[in-house]
Amino acid sequence: MAELQSVESALEALLKDVKAGDVERIDCEAAAGRVLAESVTARLDVPPADNSAMDGYALRQADAGQWLPISQRIAAGHAPDSLAPGTCARIFTGGEIPPGADTVIMQERVEAQDAQAYIPDDITLGDNVRRRGRDVRADTPLLEAGTRLEAAALGHLAGQGITQVGVYRRPRVALLSTGDEIIEPGQSLAPGQIHNSNRPMLSRLLERFGAELVMRKHVADDFATTQRLLREASERADVIVTTGGVSVGEEDHVKHALESLGQLDLWQLAMRPGKPLALGRIGQARLVGLPGNPVSCFVGAWVYLRPLMGALLGCPRMATLPRLWARADFETRTQARRHYMRVRLEFTPEGVVAHAFADQNSAVLSSCLEADALAVVPEHTTLNEGGRVECLWLTD
Ligand code: AMP
Ligand code: MG
């Protein structure tokens, strides 16, 4: 039997010369999940002025320990007047600290009567004042190129009054499932048929990884159709993802069709699930041919498609999945192939426990349902119950 190839070498071949796509300027409103193509520098201090962290009274700390006249009322959103010496100001959370005041005391600690407030003397200078620029200082770096724009980053951009950003174009992906036995949901099964699980599953994962799906077709097991659709996909997409048809069976037409159009490498990987993998090119388009088994597709998407999308999106964080160590609540033994087991993580006070779904067969999609990580059991390893296992956290 020919020697198996490593996951790392396949990844290296897959990612070789992959560059992020063109840059486009888009509205921040539409930028969720996109990746910044430029670093953003803050233009404004946030907050733009000192303001109160409490409902209470603003004063000069030196004036504490006596009754002070209440000389103004400052609600959030209204500009204050300077604080007259020897007075205090009624102030509300977010209200701007008036010039002349340096401290806020919370209202619960103040006795107020007839437009006067008694301020106890044990208050600390600067208490309850949120300083101008505490969060962000103008002219300092705000977000780095390569940042994926998620909730806090979008909030940060808005905090600067920014409405548009430069982001990398989303990778265009064509998804082709193969197999004469596959029919779409909504049609009833004839003998020998099964429904197409891979299409919705991979569509969802690819969307999470930032792709734009430009073509989704099912391809019958015949050479001419496979060739025609692969050619069409290569004209429309940056990446063609196929499922099924990359083993060496007689009905595996992806291989032959691809060889007729472009260039193809068939890999036999030291991994389980998902031993066969096809990597190739048609013109400018890259092809990733995953095996047909739904679990192999699921694992293959996390292991190969996520880093590929990350490289095309210009997002370095997506190159690798976060890793953590867990205690296995199962035992297993591997031979020549590294096993990517689908596990549910339980976070306990004693540490993280990995629970493996009982049936880890590559045709059993149930094993992916509650999987929040892949426990990676290396080649030629015996893992005992309670042993430590490295897990790849399935997060986009
Ligand atoms: P293949 O790699 O084409 O030999 O397919 C391997 C196994 O995966 C076969 O049992 C197929 O029926 C199954 N399979 C292939 N494609 C799909 C799909 N899109 N949805 C569900 N099962 C599939
Ligand atoms: Mg097939």
UniProtKB/TrEMBL annotation:
<dbReference type="GO" id="GO:0046872">
    <property type="term" value="F:metal ion binding"/>
</dbReference>
<feature type="domain" description="MoaB/Mog">
    <location>
        <begin position="174"/>
        <end position="311"/>
    </location>
</feature>
<keyword id="KW-0460">Magnesium</keyword>
<dbReference type="GO" id="GO:0061599">
    <property type="term" value="F:molybdopterin molybdotransferase activity"/>
</dbReference>
<dbReference type="InterPro" id="IPR036688">
    <property type="entry name" value="MoeA_C_domain_IV_sf"/>
</dbReference>
<dbReference type="InterPro" id="IPR036135">
    <property type="entry name" value="MoeA_linker/N_sf"/>
</dbReference>
<dbReference type="InterPro" id="IPR038987">
    <property type="entry name" value="MoeA-like"/>
</dbReference>
<comment type="function">
    <text>Catalyzes the insertion of molybdate into adenylated molybdopterin with the concomitant release of AMP.</text>
</comment>
<dbReference type="InterPro" id="IPR005110">
    <property type="entry name" value="MoeA_linker/N"/>
</dbReference>
<dbReference type="InterPro" id="IPR036425">
    <property type="entry name" value="MoaB/Mog-like_dom_sf"/>
</dbReference>
<comment type="similarity">
    <text>Belongs to the MoeA family.</text>
</comment>
<dbReference type="GO" id="GO:0006777">
    <property type="term" value="P:Mo-molybdopterin cofactor biosynthetic process"/>
</dbReference>
<keyword id="KW-0808">Transferase</keyword>
<dbReference type="GO" id="GO:0005829">
    <property type="term" value="C:cytosol"/>
</dbReference>
<dbReference type="Pfam" id="PF03454">
    <property type="entry name" value="MoeA_C"/>
</dbReference>
<dbReference type="InterPro" id="IPR008284">
    <property type="entry name" value="MoCF_biosynth_CS"/>
</dbReference>
<dbReference type="InterPro" id="IPR001453">
    <property type="entry name" value="MoaB/Mog_dom"/>
</dbReference>
<dbReference type="InterPro" id="IPR005111">
    <property type="entry name" value="MoeA_C_domain_IV"/>
</dbReference>
<keyword id="KW-0479">Metal-binding</keyword>
<comment type="pathway">
    <text>Cofactor biosynthesis; molybdopterin biosynthesis.</text>
</comment>
<dbReference type="Pfam" id="PF03453">
    <property type="entry name" value="MoeA_N"/>
</dbReference>
<protein>
    <recommendedName>
        <fullName>Molybdopterin molybdenumtransferase</fullName>
        <ecNumber>2.10.1.1</ecNumber>
    </recommendedName>
</protein>
<dbReference type="Pfam" id="PF00994">
    <property type="entry name" value="MoCF_biosynth"/>
</dbReference>
<keyword id="KW-0500">Molybdenum</keyword>
<keyword id="KW-0501">Molybdenum cofactor biosynthesis</keyword>
